[in-house]
Amino acid sequence: MKARLRQGAGDVMTLGAFMYNFTQNLLPSSISRPSLARWSSRPVLSSWLLLLSNTSRTTVSVASFDPPCPSRFRKKTPSIVMASSHSTTNNEQRLPQEFSDIFHRVDNSFSSDQARSLFPQLTSAAHKGSHGRIAIFGGSEKYTGAPYYAASAALNCGVDLVTVFCAKEASIPIKCYSPELMVQSVYSVEELDDLVREDAVLKARMETERDGEQMNMIDEERRLLRDRQHHILQKTILTITATFPSLHTLCVGPGLGRHGLLFPAVAAVLEKAMESNLALVLDADALYMLSLEEYRDTLKQLISYENVVMTPNLMESKRLKQSLRNFRNYEDFKGDDPWSNAGIVVQKGSTDVVSQKSITLRCKEKGGLKRSGGIGDVLAGTISAFVAWNTLLQNGGGGNDDVTRQLENRIFAVWMACCAVKKATRNAFDRKRRAMSAQHVLEEIGEVIREIEHNLEV
Ligand SMILES: NC(=O)C1=CN([C@@H]2O[C@H](COP(=O)(O)OP(=O)(O)OC[C@H]3O[C@@H](n4cnc5c(N)ncnc54)[C@H](OP(=O)(O)O)[C@@H]3O)[C@@H](O)[C@H]2O)[C@@H](O)CC1
Ligand SMILES: Nc1ncnc2c1ncn2[C@@H]1O[C@H](COP(=O)(O)OP(=O)(O)OP(=O)(O)O)[C@@H](O)[C@H]1O
Question: What does the radius of gyration of the chain's CA atoms come to, in whole angstroms?
Answer without folding.
Answer: 24
